[in-house]
Amino acid sequence: MNVLKAYITPPESAEDTRQRLLEAAGEVFAEKGFRSATVREICSRAGANVAAVNYHFGDKDRLYAAVLKYAHRRALEKFPPSLGLPESASAEDRLKVFIRSFLYRILDEGRPSWHGKLMTRELADPTAALDSLVEESIRPTYETLTGIIGEMLGKAASSDLRYFANSIVGQCVFYCHAAPVLERLAPGKFKSSEIERLAEHISQFSLCALRQPRKTGGRRNK
Amino acid sequence: MNVLKAYITPPESAEDTRQRLLEAAGEVFAEKGFRSATVREICSRAGANVAAVNYHFGDKDRLYAAVLKYAHRRALEKFPPSLGLPESASAEDRLKVFIRSFLYRILDEGRPSWHGKLMTRELADPTAALDSLVEESIRPTYETLTGIIGEMLGKAASSDLRYFANSIVGQCVFYCHAAPVLERLAPGKFKSSEIERLAEHISQFSLCALRQPRKTGGRRNK
DNA sequence: ACACGTTTAATACAATTGTTTGAAATGAAT
DNA sequence: ATTCATTTCAAACAATTGTATTAAACGTGT
Predict the structure, then answer these.
(1) Whole-prediction pTM value?
(2) Which of A135, A212, B47, B137 qualifies as a FRET site for A21, CA 20 to 30 Å off?
(3) Does B121 sit within 8 Å of A124, measured CB to CB?
């Protein structure tokens, strides 16, 4: 019976509280930010003792780093950057899918819903974890985007690539970053259908600009 | 001599330390955010005693509220929304000026350079001060923008006005909000000339989308 | 010179923070 | 049943926080 039980639930409750800590920490960090979040609240919400964080992760910083990694992995596997779109698809279609997937990743309310808030918080108020987050998570996504844009603009305008990428990403993250203000400017919650509408708008808005013919060298006619 | 001295520096050092506190608090709040900023550092940077904040402002919260008001007033008088542009100017020109002025207000490095950071911090991590900040500062600016856009789109598309406004504001605040990431993605500081270039790009990018003919009712042809 | 209201200063206080400690509990292997 | 490593727990630690208190310093009008 010992053997059987051990086989059915191998890591037993050890790995279990670790997991609960990860989930609870995600919530709290997203709500309060790294500095204002307290390990006491995290542990309490995870139904664990105050010392659990230090036992399982060493300290608050390493717990936070683990949460960031975990959040990004979960979000990516739930909404892969190219949602089943074949590589042969046109650049315009890949851009549309990129925008849609990106929006879902940062705005989705399903589990874990806190991924977007967590990321925007880290953008605005960086901790020591930002460096590796940029290199491992953000830069690859960013380069996917500049790749698509470069294909649409042609090689000549490469110096402007970043501006266009920033314009697109900026439109997206705004809804996550400025959510408290948007809520006050025009009360009413975001539903999932709203995300579809949003993706449609941002795609159209951006495609207009990207389709615009322009001179080589990157500078548009004034 | 008493009379003379009192006349030359009327509020003497009382109003003076109040002012120094305001400036120092602006710096520290912008750097650390409201919750992580300590009144001890603020007072130290202002060359004042720890108790100075409570004496002059009551408590940390009311100091913060005062700083927000002060920052917005200073930024608005330095970069008025319509930089001397006549009201008769075309909607396109007024949009360009709006974008340029908005960017300068949030990205300018002159004094007080912390206005932009302060605002984006309050967006992302609201305090009790956000409500009045939205009503007194943000909403008027936002309505100026939707007014311009509405003129360009025609009345029919009014339900989409907010989307277009968000797209424009989103592009702008991104450079302030995601500054730490942008710095890591492509090192190199922002110079003032960069702001001009940025304004040019965002204007062109957005005008393309706004000029695009669309059906009445707000939804564009898919 | 004196008195008085305003401002500054040093210090203390209670609350909260992340982290540590050492004992109790747990569960599998002998 | 005993041993042992792993995990949980309550309690305590030192550091930092915003704020309150109390006395000193200052400038001003008499």
Answers:
(1) 0.88
(2) A135
(3) yes
